[in-house]
Amino acid sequence: MKKIALLIVFAVSAYASYAQSCTKPCKPSCAETCSTPCDKTKCEAKCSKSAEAASITDMRKDLQSVIDKASKSSIAFNTKLKQMTITQGKNDEESLLHMSKVASSIREEFVTTLNAEKLVSSLKDFKPTSSTPQELLASLKQEIHLLATQADRL
């Protein structure tokens, strides 16, 4: 009976010490959000949300840059395109949806206005995917990259 009790105590203490050990501390940029070195789930979730917000901000700037290049171009684009501004949404999802609509309208304008020699071939065949927010983000990044490449060729 004593051996079983010792075995149980040993197993519980080994589990408790393992559960308290932390293999990976919080990232340095998020260290202020962590109350203990093992508070990594809270810290990493906050960091990934911050990284996503920064990525959306960068995409918004890139898309605005595409609009600016198109408006300075000698090609006769629709005046609505030349006057577009990318506004920030109330949340990330709203921002992504707004940017997705703007990117689609810019893509349509490029495809209909530019002749085939100037058009980036993959831009014409691009089909956005948006089943999940992550897929929408990845698809929008790809579309904005294509639009930026096209804007550089104007």
Describe the secondary structure blueprint for this structure.
Elements: H1 2-20, H2 40-72, H3 79-82, H4 92-113, H5 121-124, H6 133-152
Helix pairs in contact: 2-4, 2-6, 4-6
What do you see in this structure?
The chain has 154 residues and is mainly alpha-helical. The chain has a domain at 52-152. The protein has six helices and no strands. The protein has helices at 2-20, 40-72, 79-82, 92-113, 121-124, 133-152. Helix 2 runs parallel beside helix 4 (92-113) and helix 4 (92-113) runs parallel beside helix 6 (133-152). The longest helix has 33 residues, at 40-72. The chain is elongated, with a radius of gyration of 25 Å. The protein starts with a helix and ends with a helix. Residues 18-25 have low confidence and may be disordered.
Oligomer: single chain
Share of helical residues: 55-70%
Radius of gyration: 25 Å
For the biggest sheet, the summary is: none
Beta strand count: 0
Order of helices and strands: HHHHHH
Give the CA-based shape.
Answer: elongated
* End-to-end C-alpha gap: 84 Å
Average predicted confidence as pLDDT: 78
Helix/sheet category: mainly alpha
